[in-house]
Design brief:
The protein is α/β, with parallel strands linked by helices and 163 residues long. It contains 5 helices and 8 strands; from the N terminus they run βββαβααβαββαβ. The chain is globular.
Length: 163
């Protein structure tokens, strides 16, 4: 499944186009639809750190997806209110992305059925190779390690895994 083109901004106001700006390396996107970083999102952060330490080509982004704004409003915003628990350093700012888009079309393209869930998507070359939802579990941790390890050969699963 191809990840739809999406314009986002990091906390420093820099524009990013997903998936084009992600490159070909494996990337974990933690997609959520509420400004607060929920406990479910936070459960994925330690495994993202472990994966980054084990694979220097691995990246992780926290992606907040919100409804579209009128053009005049969107162009006047430099940075959205994206609540994080980070220390505000450059790495945190560039790893937290906010996008305003047609939520229904975005969710339909990726088969994301609920706004109250976090979705963990592993992308490579703009394709979703693995996905899950909800908090990280031991079983999901094993599967994401396998998916990221296999992503170099394209053998990752595209099955939605419920937690």
């Amino acid at each position: 499944m191809r990840f739809p083109e999406l314009k986002a901004r990091d906390l420093d106001g820099r524009s990013v186009t997903l998936p084009n700006d992600l490159g070909s390396d494996p990337t974990l996107l933690l997609v959520h639809f509420t400004p607060q970083v929920t406990p479910d999102v936070e459960t994925w952060l330690p495994v993202a750190t472990d994966l980054a330490e084990a694979n220097h080509d691995f990246w992780c982004y926290d992606l907040l997806v919100l409804p579209e704004l009128p053009d005049a409003v969107e162009s006047s915003l430099a940075v959205d209110l994206h609540v994080t628990d980070g220390d505000g350093g450059t790495d945190d700012a560039s790893r937290s992305l906010t996008a305003h888009t047609d939520l229904a079309a975005f969710r339909r393209a990726l088969v994301l059925d609920r706004l109250d869930r976090v979705y963990a998507l592993v992308l490579r070359d703009g394709r979703v190779e693995w996905r899950a939802f909800g908090p990280l579990t031991t079983a999901l941790e094993r599967r994401i390690h396998t998916a990221v390890g296999e992503s170099a050969t394209g053998d990752g699963s595209d099955d939605l895994v419920a937690s």
